[in-house]
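Take one protein record:
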Amino acid sequence: MDIKTVFIAEDEPLAREVLRDAIYAHAGLRLVGEAADGASALAQINQLQPDAVFMDIQMPEMTGLEVLKRLRCAPAIVFTTAYDQYAVTAFELHAVDYLLKPFTRARFDAAVARLLEPAHPAPDVVGAALARAIDRAPGRIERILVRDRGRIFPLSLNEIEYLKADSKYTAIAARGQTFLVRIGISELEAQLDPARFIRIHRSALVNLDFVDSMKADDQSQLLIQMRDGTSLTASREASKVLREMSI
């Protein structure tokens, strides 16, 4: 059997562990390295030149797409991500496969079966598609994968009431709970419907479908009362936008 050397580029420890265990269990694969951020992944992949990379798209310091753009070698790529809107990009880049987290062992094995096939696209074809993918604005998403007490499940945007920046994370209020995701609030905002999700100040977005009422304070800033009882204050700029929307 032809053994493929593989590398894991994934910032989430749990996802790395799942991939590591699956790779160790497969006779046709040999793990040669791991990285938890894009910059480390780029340096190690260029040094190790593995046959294939299991690549997360959203990583600190550098995205998976940016890593691919800077590689000096051409490994086969299996994308791993929590966002289904990247599927089109993955196929444009002629990725071997696209694993939507959380994935099953059977789904992983199917990706490996494709990985072990001999034919892969030429680097110049991939490079042209990569340039188009990086230049294209991010698309809209319909759901976000979140964790709760050891479970990972899709959360529909229709359920999200508001989002607040929390250091390197974003706190998502939905279903009477708060879920933390390791994605910046600005990155999320770019993929949300601007007609529904409004940036009320630097660190918060609200879903207008869950706003109970808005009332101006003494500074002419709008106090936003959410249906769950949470009160949020809009900046002057956001208050102006919201007033214009009500006309």
